[in-house]
Amino acid sequence: MRLPEDELAALEGASLLRRIPDLDTSLVNFSSNDYLGLSSNAEVKKAYRDAIENYGAGSTASRLVCGTMEPHLNLENSIAKAKGSEAALSFSSGYATSIGVITSLLSKGDTVILDKLCHASLIDGARMSGATIRVYPHNNTEKLESILKSVTKKANQDSRILVITESVFSMDGDMAPLDRINKLCKQYDCLLLVDEAHALGVIGPTGMGLAEELGIQDQIDFQMGTLGKAAGVAGGYLATTRVWADLMINRSRSFIYSTAPPPAQAAAASKALEIIQSEQGSQLRKQLLNNIESFRVISEIEGSCPSAIIPWIVSDSDRALKLSAELRENGFLVPAIRYPTVPRHTARLRITINSHHDETSIKALANHLTSSI
Ligand SMILES: *Cc1c(COP(=O)(O)O)cnc(C)c1O
Fold it and tell me: 98 in ligand 1 pocket by Cβ < 6 Å?
């Protein structure tokens, strides 16, 4: 039998061993996805506390068993409204959403087409569904079209074809050509799922993501995301039509066979969504964009993508670890991201900017990085 010790030693030898680091709050955190600082927002925390008092600590069962509590319904109503969809369904995490939604939609005989850089949860959902998996090179819509051509030619009447992309990619921070992808899906009569995990709160007139920015929310079959990143709380969501949502309620195993998230979590997430869409949310986004711009200017990174994720690619895993350790010595928390989270030989530091970073630390980090080249 293979011993776990040997497996861990092999990982360590390749600079790929992972440990859960202690959270060192003395470091300036350039690694969290709390883009607007909402995890420590006073109103969000109050909504959490009040809901604990009103509804208790946990939901105690699946919603299909015990019946639904008000905060989950309120959350789903506000998501549907914000996303311009008929219905929404909340899950315990973004990961559970990806798996639940994709496996409910697809089975053997169907086809799922993913961007090469899609998040692990989307890949896992695709694998678990039993559908045929096709992958197109990152953001390459020509290749996507050629796959769509060949797949739709062969598909029978009943089978489903689902295209999956993120809107802002989690490890590269770049954006999908979503307008073009959406048009191709319409042209070839396929379904489209967009994971807005890193765009919610950051992009769009009311912070609802790239689909909102492009004005195409009502054209996207499945808009999903997490409430654990810019929303600062936890949980996942799917916004879609009533009939698809009803199918998810009947088929989605991560929804059916899992205790519903605590009602207080749903109440806090609703508050966070409300803030994201408010004037306060716009102000936070403005601050965030200023911070991103400052960092880009000082570290001489080109481009104008408004995403808060900035990859600093160093290729080699060992070098990424060393650079991350060096930054830690200097007071910055910036994680090294390695295979298999990113493709081999593209190890990097993943810098995330948030609205609460001050000018001094942004400058200091950028200067450290540029002098490390
Ligand atoms: C983080 C992330 C998820 C998972 O969301 P959680 O709520 O953290 O489980 C799903 N998709 C993408 C693109 C993500 O970045």
Answer: yes
